[in-house]
User: Fold this.
Amino acid sequence: MKTIYLDNNATTRVAPEVVAEMLPYFSERYGNPSSMHSFGGQVGKELRAAREKLAGLLGARPEEIIYTSCGTESDNTAIRAALAANPGRRQVVTTRVEHPAVKSLCEHLVKEGYRVTFVPVDQSGRLDLDYLYEHMTEDTAIVSVMWANNETGVLFPVEQIARFAKERGIAFHTDAVQAVGKIPIDLSASAIDMLSLSGHKLHGPKGIGALYVRKGTKFSPFLIGGHQESGRRGGTENTAAIIGLGRAAEFVSDHMEEENTRVKALRDRLESGLLGRVSHAVVNGDPENRLPNTSNIAFEFVEGESILLMMDGHGICASSGSACTSGSLEPSHVLRAMGVPYTAAHGSIRFSLSLYNTEEEIDYVVEHLPPIIERLRQMSPFWQNACEKTA
Ligand code: PLP
Assistant:
């Protein structure tokens, strides 16, 4: 059975071009880039070229990039660094819909005695900017607002928020893990102080992330050790992954237009195909202002997990809006923050596409998913209830 992979916000296929470029760093080019000898020094030179490629994708300077192990480390580093650099300030402002890489850290900071403001969103997942601006105070050490939501794809006006923060002397960080590679980003004329990204979301390898730190931003390292990354993150460089991330940055930059035309058209074809064939199905999140590859659809009165299992039987990979890891089947905090009703949040499925998807794959999903929903609804007491009420 062929796999139809529509879960690219979870992770992406490493582009073959990226793999090819990484392979020598597992075999003949194993030198340590910090070594004095030319065998290692040559690797150091190649890492500098990779850093320039990643900086190029962001409109940043190479020295403004700090490599990390993942998006989570980048997010944790940014927020901790701002708190350490501004010890007199005890408040963090963030949103109610952040990825756990920010959300869980902020909840942890509350236990450490910091004050955290979680800014609400409306039913379309749009941020309450008035609330956000009102809650920035002289006590705010950092404002951290994601660029693109991983579940709904909804985009936040981070540049506008960053400018507001800058005017008040407050550091601004954005978790751009889902945005980088999908939409154009130019930090050269931006007010953003720090930005997180992750290699495996942009057709690069897992185990590598980066934190952009604008020149002049107060910073304090998270991992203290060797002099790597100009003393801002200790630890021998993950050379193969850094090379891979550099190539991935070139790859997504070359395909950015395709992401915003062909991939977006595929996403729209999937959405209209499903909404046209399934009743009581709605798109979660602002349909206009969102990533071109993401569609989060609520199929009311069915369990997301059951849909996923049955789609899996057809080789279709997607994600649900519930976090069933705890066994509680609690709907996602993002959908709850948006006020999505319980019966819709439970049946919410995230489809996230990439440039490797084809029209045939989308048509296959549009053909096979509606009968799955129909079958599950026949077994659902919520659906029977709803039918009786409308009869
Ligand atoms: N931030 C967002 C918005 C994400 O979607 C993810 C991963 O899904 C992360 C952070 C964490 O990235 P990583 O898996 O590289 O730690």
Remarks:
- Residues 70-72, 75, 99, 101, 146, 150, 175, 177-178, 198, 209 surround pyridoxal-5'-phosphate (CB under 6 Å).
- The chain has a mean pLDDT of 95.
